[in-house]
Amino acid sequence: MENKRIERIDRGIKVRTEGIYSIVSMREMMYIAGPRIIFLGILFLLPLILEAAPYWKRVMNIMFIYSLLAISFDFLANYTGLVCLGGAFFIGIGGYATAILNSVLHIPVLLSIPLAAIIGAVVCTLLLLPCLQLRGVYFAIITLMFPLLFTRVIEATNILGGTNGITGLESIPGHFTENYYIMIVALIALFGLRRFVNLDAGLVMRGVKDNEQSIRASGINVTWMKTQAVFISSLIGCFGGAYLAHLYVWAGLSLFALDFSIIPIAAVAIGGGGTIFGAIAGSFILVPLSEFLRFFGSFRIVLYCIILTAFIVFKSEGIMTYITRKYHQFERWVDV
Amino acid sequence: MLEAVNLMVFYENMLALNNITINCSKGKITGVFGSNSAGKSTLMHTLSGIMLDIKKKEEMIGGEKISIFGEIIYEGNEISMLKPHERARAGIVLCPERRRIFPESTVLENLKIGSYLTTKKEKEQNLDYVFNIFPHLKAHANRQGGFLSGGEQQMLAIGRALMANPKLLMLDEPLLGLSPLYQKIVVNAVKEIKETRGLTIVITEQYARPVIPIIDYGYIIENGSSVLEGTGDQLMDNPDVKSAYFGV
User: Fold this and answer.
1) Mean pLDDT across the stretch A209-221?
2) Which of A3, A9, A317 sits opposite B60 (nearest CB)?
3) Which residue of A260, A317, B115, B224 is most buried, as measured by CB atoms within 10 A?
């Protein structure tokens, strides 16, 4: 009858691999390393496979830029409690920084991108510093306002090339450099942050999200922790922006487009918040999807919205959370 | 009036309630006693239907799997699938643990929120009734709920539950964190509510001593299962209970 329930228990191998014993056999090691190796393997082969379709190689680069933004959003929102809609802000600042470095100061492209990321991150952090006291939706609105503000300022004062933007940026030499450069940075951001959130500093940041007052009561400067978190995520975001500017060989007002703020959030919602990996998975689904939907012309926004809504309604835990659970646990019917 | 038969609740694989059968007769006060983690709050949440809501939320975020079994019979109807708001309409009103008042609304507003389901006339009657039982609240009627003391907040929470015109009032740990004086006030108020309005009341508490004089029937639960039941005196006479719940 109905006196049965689904029992969910950890797989034996999951329990065995939790401690130091995970290195006793090949099978246990593969259980931990396997998914990561497969993921990395596919990623590294992807540019070679897509050699046949150069257009999709370009889509792949865009995909990684959105991944970076989604990672930085996920880190700020789910580990520090700052809901930041400033993706466009990071992209814009990073893009303009590299434009100045490269086309005015003539710093070579491979160096100017990371340099622009650091300069951009400092600028973003300084600008966001007064707003760090705000929480929740107020911080989100402020970060959403910044790109709009910059667009208007550039339009009105005609600085930084005005509406024409800054042209004449160097493009990144070689297709494979272009692909692997952003891929490796995205992977460093992914695995670095996954490690970082379990360090002491990361734990404190998660504490800031849960209960700011008790962190303050422990004698930790909350604003300083938030500053660090904003710096890290704007560093990641600005890198994406700087790379994008070199991809287009142009830095202009479209770098402040709202897409860069919205799509990463959708990616995190689909991939599963708080996993960081989910951010990458989400943008790997969303960006190619929006390319496919190009066939439908302007109708594609409708389809895009339907797919997003369906995901949020039916699988709001996110893909990564779901897959991780299926990987580690199994279900069976048992008598009550 | 309310009868729960073989109630079982699982949090993931942990058994939170194990075959609990309790019976609350009309117009009586039923006490449920147990230590922390005995399952008192789970029982209250299950009876009031909030557990269904928690279950759904956990499913949405992919968290713990909650399974509920057993029957809840209220006035002859099986209600275990009814949603919390439908149960509240039917007259089962929970006064939650830790009070959960609306801290930024005034006392009067808090009480009015509670009377959402009633008619205007009933609302005025109930308001008079609540102010009559808890004169403290009348003195602070325009103060924000968050600025009341713990005891006053508890009175406010009970008052808010009464505003919904309950037939069955469930009080989850109403004496939590109250001084002995306030405990006495609250316990006397509960007794008065029962006598003047003839409500059926379920009351849970960790420390049984202040509550035991007013209850008509009591259950003691440990680790999710009901280990002992009886009238207040029967519970008092049991030596194990004495040492565990009365500190004698």
Assistant:
1) 91
2) A317
3) A260
Report CB contact under 8 Å: A317, B62.
yes
User: Average pLDDT, stretch A198-212?
Assistant: 91
User: Cα separation of A158 and B80, whole Å?
Assistant: 68
Burial (0-12, 13-18, 19+ Cβ within 10 Å), B233 = exposed
Q: Per-residue pLDDT tens for B154-209?
A: 999 999 999 999 999 999 999 988 999 999 999 999 999 999 999 999 999 988 88
Chain A interface includes B67 (CB < 8 A):
yes
Residues of B in contact with A322 (CB under 8 A): 62
Q: Do B61 and A322 touch (CB under 8 A)?
A: no
Query: Kind and range of the H or E element at A295?
Result: none
| A 267-326 residues inside an 8 A Cβ radius of B | 316-318, 321-322, 325
Average pLDDT value for residue range A7-34? 81
**Minimal Cβ distance to B62: which of A2, A9, A322:** A322
Q: Which domain holds residue B223?
A: 2-246
pTM reported for the whole predicted model:
0.85
CATH entry, A4-335, from 1.10.150, 1.10.3470, 2.10.260, 2.40.128:
1.10.3470
Total domain count for chain B?
A: 1
b or e along A237-250 (b: 16 or more beta carbons within 10 Å of the residue's beta carbon)?
bbbbbbbbbbbbbb
3-class secondary-structure state, position B248: coil
Residues 2-31 of A with CB under 8 A from B: 2-3, 5-9
Question: Which residue, A73, A74, A78, is CA-closest to A88?
Answer: A73
For residues B18 and B92, the answer to whether their CB atoms sit within 8 Å is: no
Q: Is B60 close to A336, i.e. CB distance below 8 A?
A: no
